[in-house]
């Protein structure tokens, strides 16, 4: 891959010089001559095959849209011209590139060689063009990541066992994950796999609750242990996105319903199928107003008063933790009848 990137950079430098010379002389920049055929995943990443053939151009809309007007107003500086040429070589359309720059102005300040390095690496590791556009728009800082670091981090994700399709979805929707050190990623995924029996649930967890990748491990364990005390099913923990909320929020919502007589704390003989408790998703994800009216059947004033009282009841040691040692903080997981 390093040799590939080196050759790519040399070719791009030559092409950039030609384009800049053309711009200075008032000529139109030459169209890319290199044809990008099917690109296969690198051996390091063991990823999917990808075809980067440029899709057929869509028919022009007779009415000029706001987006078209913005594209027309995009200043074609030497940097923009260079980036457009580089991206076209990778199979991106002129319109997609310009829309990307308009939607994410921070990209207009990034050197052309960084575009070439990053996009080339992502393509070789199996990302499709649409996914790359989403990554660049969502996290432009990805262009500053060194190629070797990028490959190591993607490799850590591919070796995690989450599944190829799910992995690409997670990284595309959360491109800032690519900035997380590969050693930390491997460790955190293994920690979750000790809890979740299904590895794919870990990937879905990151997609629905992105904070769980880097959040303090002690806080995560406290959330999971509390949910286990309520006999919460693993699939519900993932699908509801409950771990995206703070521990106080999770506890307060449940405790309010318990004291209101609406939620029954599970006993040893708890049977989920026979339970009439409200669903976890409704408890934690509704707004305060909808929660108190639809689930609790009480007033917002009563809930606000409860929150003030409940905050005073909680011990100070429930707020803020410093350790991230998985050996120190373990799950108090107990099986129950479903």
Automatic annotation (TrEMBL):
GO terms for biological process: mitochondrial ribosome assembly; mitochondrial transcription. Pfam families: mTERF (PF02536). GO terms for cellular component: mitochondrion. The keyword Transmembrane helix does not apply. Gene3D superfamilies: Transcription termination factor 3, mitochondrial (1.25.70.10). Keywords: Transit peptide. One of its GO terms (molecular function) is nucleic acid binding. Transmembrane segments: none annotated. InterPro entries: MTERF, MTERF_sf. Belongs to the mTERF family. This is Uncharacterized protein. The lineage of its organism: Eukaryota, Metazoa, Ecdysozoa, Arthropoda, Hexapoda.
């Amino acid at each position: 891959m390093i040799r590939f990137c080196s050759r790519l950079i040399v070719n791009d430098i030559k092409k950039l010089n030609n384009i800049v010379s053309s711009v200075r002389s008032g000529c139109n920049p030459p169209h890319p001559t290199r044809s990008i055929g099917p690109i296969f995943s690198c051996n390091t990443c063991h990823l999917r095959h990808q075809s980067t053939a440029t899709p057929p151009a869509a028919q022009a809309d007779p009415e000029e849209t706001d987006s078209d007007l913005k594209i027309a107003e995009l200043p074609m500086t030497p940097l923009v011209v260079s980036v457009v040429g580089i991206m076209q070589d990778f199979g991106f359309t002129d319109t997609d590139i310009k829309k990307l720059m308009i939607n994410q102005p921070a990209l207009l300040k990034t050197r052309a060689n960084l575009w070439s390095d990053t996009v080339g690496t992502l393509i070789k590791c199996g990302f499709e063009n649409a996914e790359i556009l989403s990554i660049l728009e969502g996290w432009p800082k990805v262009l500053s990541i060194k190629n070797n670091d990028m490959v190591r981090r993607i490799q850590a994700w591919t070796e995690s066992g989450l599944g190829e399709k799910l992995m690409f979805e997670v990284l595309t929707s959360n491109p800032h994950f690519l900035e997380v050190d590969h050693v930390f990623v491997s460790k955190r995924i293994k920690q979750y796999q000790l809890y979740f029996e299904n590895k794919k649930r870990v990937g879905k967890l990151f997609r629905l609750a992105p904070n769980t990748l880097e959040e303090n491990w002690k806080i995560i364990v406290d959330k999971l242990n509390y949910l286990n005390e309520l006999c919460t099913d693993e699939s519900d923990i993932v699908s509801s996105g409950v771990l995206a909320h703070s521990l106080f929020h999770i506890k307060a919502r449940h405790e309010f319903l318990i004291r209101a007589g609406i939620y029954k704390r599970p006993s040893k003989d708890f049977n989920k199928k026979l339970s009439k408790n409200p669903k976890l998703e409704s408890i934690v994800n509704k707004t305060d107003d909808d929660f108190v009216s639809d689930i609790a059947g009480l007033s917002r004033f009563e809930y606000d008063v409860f929150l003030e009282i409940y905050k005073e009841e909680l011990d100070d040691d429930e707020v803020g933790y410093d350790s991230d040692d998985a050996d120190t903080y373990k799950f108090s997981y107990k099986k129950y009848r479903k």
